[in-house]
Design brief:
8-stranded mixed beta sheet; 4-stranded antiparallel beta sheet; 38 strands; 12 helices; Rossmann fold; single chain
């Protein structure tokens, strides 16, 4: 390997191959996987990553002025003294706030009946002395005296759970250093339930910790049947039940434990069935179940605590309405879903009457917000569109009216009337119509001369809804349009939309993105070759696949923590997520067909001699989701194979994980780098402002 400020690092090739199903695959960059992972201390590996980081800095130095200008813009849109709308919970109402200059939130409360504000948690204090910090779960005890909270200080997503006395601000005990996910309290405020991860970062156990106890915490449930399943914990809306769920991406199984008697044997709602997902909420002795057992778009059923597996349909599944979530409040059932890809919230009363909460924009995102009490006469909602900043509403259930509690402020200025949004449909190569949400500054003309940024994800049934981003204005105000492609693999148009982009149909996801890009060019939204694109994680896999398929379409591509070494990862069942990922991608260990399919699209395996667009790639050394060597190997192979002179830069965050740097301003620095990279490829420097922006 050689490196200097004048030349990019060239990774060595070490002979390595493997054979499955009679097929031998050469992998000369396998050495970049440190055999001691999750500890990474191989000197050759570290030297290569540091050389790439040095090359990144050298190549980005000429755009420093643009990056600095962008960072100032991005930071100028951040409300320094921001605060959330208080949420009632018991005797108090709770909120978070940012103090000017702080990277992290401070969590506060005050008595509902009036009284002084009280500090619950100070993230700036907890983050002090750490290069990386993330506050995970936090949970207030039912008596309001204690807070259980989880912190991660290296990006590995192995959280330390502590119990703090709110009045004194003193930590009473450290519960564990290997937790992930939610924390729930028992009814008497004397114990918490938390989820343990093992060395392979698999969520295998739900444990009960009694405050003050020594020795090992009691196991309430351990997943032993399927190593692809992970355990999670929650509490019912009425607060009376602990909900223990074990699941993979396509199947689930739920157990209930009385919050007043955590030692009671867990009550199994219904045994797991391959391909059937269900989740449960409880009101009194009645269960409300959302499941796809009888319809791909899910139904809602009810059952009794006495016979939890005897389900009676309350709302049948149908092709028009996709049901995505339920909350069983005391006086009504709140139902989240989508119709034709647009979010929908319905309130159903016990007499069967329903109210659809009205939203009027052509494309938007809406969801049920934080509602911590058994009933919600004022239902907290979150709303945004591509031109409407994030808005917090309370919906007055009795009056049927929306009350605006907060709208996101943009301190440097934002005039929504100067921006427009459209929702269009692009026909993919197999005839399926794909929805695309586009936002642009007024004056942008789809006349075939423009510039466009295209974003998508396309995996795990995660929808890319058309929300607001103040950051995006830095592109729009420079004359670009921004589009979100709601491609198959997400569940934007229903659960079948997800199924049509996974396993044997995975190529639909990549084809949809390429076809949307071509369709937008044909419709005049961008000139040929004037589209930039970005995606992260599975969206980074998307970026790798589409530049293998159609590199000429893109002016610049950014791939964050990209899942690009798909075949190798799915063959290595010792890795944190692999067994749980087989229902999503296939199992190449047992299936030759899966092996050949994954190899046919895996971005790393499909790199070949051809011209590639300018590329920015990122990784996190401590990332447990997409291990650092996936993008490292991909970049090494690209450098060896690509036939162009276009820029290729690769940065590894040496002290962070899947989400990059922590802190609201540190994260903006990385976004400014990304935008500077993209804009430079379009020839837009620090002094460029679109004429339409004035």
């Amino acid at each position: 390997m050689t490196a200097s400020p004048l030349t990019p690092p060239i990774a060595a090739k070490h002979p390595h191959n493997f054979t499955h199903h009679g097929i031998t695959v050469e992998d000369p960059y396998n050495w970049l996987k440190d055999p001691g992972y999750p500890t990474v201390n191989d000197p050759d590996v570290l030297a290569y990553l540091e050389a790439e980081n040095a090359w990144f800095e050298a190549q980005m130095a000429p755009v420093a002025a643009l990056k600095d200008k962008l960072y100032d813009e991005l930071k100028g849109r951040v409300q320094q003294d921001d605060a959330s709308v208080p949420v009632p919970n018991g005797a108090f109402e709770y909120w978070w706030q940012f103090k000017p200059g702080d990277q992290y939130r401070t969590w506060m409360r005050r008595p509902k009946a009036g009284g002084a504000e009280q500090l619950v948690l100070s993230e700036p204090e907890l983050a002090s002395g750490h290069d990386y910090f993330r506050l995970g779960a936090q949970s207030i005890s039912p008596d309001g005296r204690l807070v259980a909270y989880a912190t991660d200080t290296d990006g590995s997503e192995r959280f330390t759970v502590r119990i703090r006395d709110i009045a004194s601000g003193a930590d009473l005990e450290t519960v564990t250093t290997v937790s992930v996910g939610a924390i729930v309290w028992t009814a008497d405020s004397k114990a918490i339930v938390w989820t343990e991860v093992n060395e392979q970062w698999r969520r295998i156990k739900a444990r009960l910790h009694v405050l003050g106890q020594t020795g090992e915490d009691r196991v309430l449930y351990e997943e032993t049947e399927d190593k692809g399943f992970g355990v999670s914990v929650a509490k019912s809306q009425d607060g009376q039940w602990l909900i223990i769920t074990t699941s993979d991406h396509v199947s689930s199984e739920v157990r209930l434990v009385p919050a007043s008697d955590p030692a009671a044997p867990p009550l199994l709602v219904r045994p797991r069935q391959a391909g059937v997902r269900y989740d449960v909420d409880v009101r009194g002795d009645r269960l409300f179940i959302r499941s796809n057992d009888t319809h791909v778009n899910f139904r809602i059923a009810t059952a009794s605590i006495a016979a939890p597996g005897a389900w009676t349909t309350l709302i049948a599944g149908n092709t028009q309405d996709y049901i995505t979530g339920i909350a069983a409040f005391a006086s009504y059932l709140a139902i989240e879903g989508r119709r034709d890809g647009l979010d929908r919230i319905v309130l159903r009363r016990d007499d069967g009457s329903e109210t659809v909460i009205p939203f009027t924009e052509a494309a938007y995102t809406a969801s049920i917000g934080s509602n911590l009490e058994p009933d919600a006469p004022l239902l907290r909602l979150n709303y945004a569109s591509m031109v409407t900043p994030a808005t917090v509403y309370d919906y007055d259930v009795a009056a049927g009216t929306l009350i605006t509690r907060k709208m996101q402020q943009v301190p440097s200025g934002y005039d929504a009337s100067q921006y427009e949004s459209q929702r269009i449909w692009v026909t993919a190569r197999d005839g399926v119509k794909v929805p695309v949400a586009i936002v642009y500054r007024k004056g942008f003309q789809p006349d075939g001369t423009g510039k466009l940024h295209l974003y998508a994800y396309g995996a795990y049934g995660i929808a890319m809804t058309p929300g607001f981003s103040a950051n995006r204005l830095s592109l729009l105000d420079r004359g670009m349009a921004f589009a979100i492609a709601q491609i198959r693999g997400g569940d934007d148009l229903g659960y079948q939309w997800y199924l049509d982009g996974k396993l044997a149909k995975r190529s639909n996801t990549f084809n949809d993105f390429v076809d949307v890009a071509r369709g937008l060019v044909a419709a005049g939204w961008a000139a040929p070759g004037m589209i930039s694109a970005s995606g992260g994680s599975a969206g980074g896999e998307l970026m790798g696949a589409v530049i293998n398929q159609a590199p000429d379409l893109f002016r610049a591509v950014v791939a964050h923590v990209p899942f690009v070494d798909v075949l190798n990862t799915m063959l290595d069942e010792s890795l944190p997520l692999t067994p749980g990922e087989w229902p999503e991608w296939g199992n190449p260990i047992t299936s030759k067909a899966d092996f050949e399919l994954i190899r046919s699209y895996s971005p790393y395996d499909q790199v070949r001699p051809q011209a590639y667009p300018p590329l920015m790639v990122t990784a996190g050394l401590n990332d447990p989701r997409v291990t650092y060597w996936e993008p490292a190997k991909w970049v090494a192979k690209l450098r060896d194979c690509k036939t162009d002179d276009n820029i290729l830069v690769f940065k590894t965050n040496m002290g962070a994980g899947h989400g990059g740097k922590s802190g609201r301003f540190a994260a903006l620095e990385e976004l400014a780098e990304e935008y500077a990279f993209i804009l430079t490829q379009f020839g837009l420097g620090p002094d460029h402002t679109d004429a339409a922006a004035g």
